[in-house]
Amino acid sequence: MADRILVVDDDEAALEALQIGLEAMGFEVTAHASYEGARAALADRSLALMVTDLDLGAHSGLELVAQAGEQDPELPTIIVTGHATVSSAVEAMRAGVWDYLLKPVSLDELEVHARRAIQHARLSREVESLRQAASRQLGLDLAGSSPAMVELRDMVERVSRTDVGVLLFGESGTGKEVVAQTIHRHSARAEGPFVPVNCAALPETLLESELFGHVRGAFTDARKARRGLFLEANGGTLLLDEIGEMPLAMQPKLLRALQERVVRPVGGDEAVPFDTRVIAATNRDLVEAIAQGTFREDLYYRLNVVQIDLPPLRARGNDVLMLAQRFIERFAERHGVSVRGLTPEAAEQLLRHPWPGNVRELMNAIERAVALARDELIDIADLPERVREAERSRMDFAADNAEDLVTLEELERRYIARVLEATGGNKSQAARLLGIDRKTLFRKLKREEAEQDDEEAEGPTSEG
Asked: What is the CATH number of the domain that holds 43?
């Protein structure tokens, strides 16, 4: 729908010129030549902007600005006048007017200011809406309203009711441990322990002892027996984080433990049964790891009864602002500062940044901004340099001329490239997002590569 603008001017010729000009720009215009008519029109909450003359006969345009502020504090206003004074300009700015333009008004200049004012107000409303939504959702485990998060919460809710093995797949920083903890807390094992272990953080010899335990004297410094994490997590949940980094020699031992539901401590002969749910997590494409010979296929299928893909932050849209608001409130309380939100400009910049470090990067950026903020609202200058300099990456296939449109094949090629970018080059995840199997995706990529090779072989051509 077109944005609706209320235009007010007691000079009917000027009013008509503004109305015609704004309608030609694609706006829907409501025009009034009187203060009384305009005041009544302010009851329309669908207005996106008000443009009013400063002099309305017996009334001032600033009186109308005040009325607009009472009806809708977020409605932006632009004052136009043929009798500009410094005092009236200062008064207008103090009243919260977006801009103060001189007559005769340049329609090009008016369009620029109108669109900026509308966009600023829209983003400001969105930030406030998300701030309120965040305050209502502080108790939720997995906040966000994007389709990706709605689907993730649905998967977590369903898998939590069962005791099956789960494989969590997602980039670093997407919150795999948070999801694992959520599954645990909503499962029948919630009263039991939740025990995480990072499989990449320990060498193979220590990892085996860490998982399965050891008997006294099993190795140097083994002065007493120790229960392993499988038994520590008995009755609860064990998270095997970074499972893709587990040494290949260790993998059959883990597979045997999962199949037999018993562990054999290092240096011991007795098998000890356990009752532990195992959740594995990785940021590696395990299907590719299997093809490369670095991960066992039988272990993969044992762990991957249900796979849950965690979306990268760049694929979650306005969830960025929801999470930012939650972090602002958390860090403002922790550090004892009065920061309460974002300026619309800062919010827009957060949406531009691709967040390669995902939620972890956002959390760090917001903590820094809260610590450095000069005001109650975080502004662009408070954000880290890498975020301030980000430019939005988007796919835009709109065109005014038929000659500028692309073929369906080219559209598919560009979209596949965009999905691969969003998944960090992970072909298995990209294939799932595209709704095709891996073989089909590889075939399309090979065809594209062959076409590019043919073009390079042919080289540039000339005629005449």
From this structure: 3.40.50.2300
Q: How many domains does the chain have?
A: 4
Across the strands, what pairs with 309?
Answer: 169
Kindly state the DSSP code that residue 221 receives in the 8-state scheme. Answer: T
CA atoms within a 13 Å half-sphere pointing along the CA-CB vector of 459: 1
* Beta-strand pair 166-169/306-309: parallel
What is the CATH classification number for the domain harbouring 348?
1.10.8.60
Query: ω into residue 104 within 30 of 0, thus cis?
Result: yes
The closest alpha carbon to 187, from 204, 210, 165, belongs to 165
Contact residues for 314 (Cβ-Cβ < 8 A; gap 6+)? 354, 355, 422
Q: Do 111 and 25 meet the contact criterion of CB atoms below 8 Å apart?
A: yes
In whole angstroms, give the CA distance from residue 196 to residue 159.
19
Q: Which H or E run contains 286?
A: helix 286-292
Q: With residue 24 as reference, give the H or E element that holds it.
A: helix 12-24
Distances in Å between the Cα of 384 and the Cα atoms of 70, 189, 320, 372 are 37, 41, 16, 10
8 Å CB contact between 143 and 323: yes
Compute the distance between CA of residue 381 and CA of residue 388 in angstroms, rounded to an integer: 7
Q: Please state whether beta strands 28-32 and 4-8 pair in parallel, antiparallel, or not at all (unpaired).
A: parallel
Beta bridge partners of residue 81, listed in sequence order: 102
Residue 58 in tokens:
């017996």
- Could you read off the pLDDT tens digit of each residue along the chain, which spans 464 residues? 688 999 999 888 999 999 999 999 999 999 999 898 898 888 877 899 999 999 888 888 899 999 888 888 889 999 998 887 888 888 888 888 888 888 888 898 899 999 989 988 888 777 666 555 544 443 345 778 888 888 998 999 999 999 999 999 999 989 999 999 999 988 999 999 999 999 998 888 789 888 998 777 666 666 677 888 999 999 999 999 999 999 999 999 999 999 999 998 888 888 889 999 999 999 999 999 999 999 999 999 999 999 999 999 988 888 898 899 889 999 999 999 999 888 888 888 998 898 999 999 999 999 999 999 999 999 999 999 999 987 654 444 444 445 545 567 777 777 787 777 666 677 776 776 666 777 788 888 888 777 666 655 555 544 43
Residue where a domain terminates, one of 358, 388, 418: 388
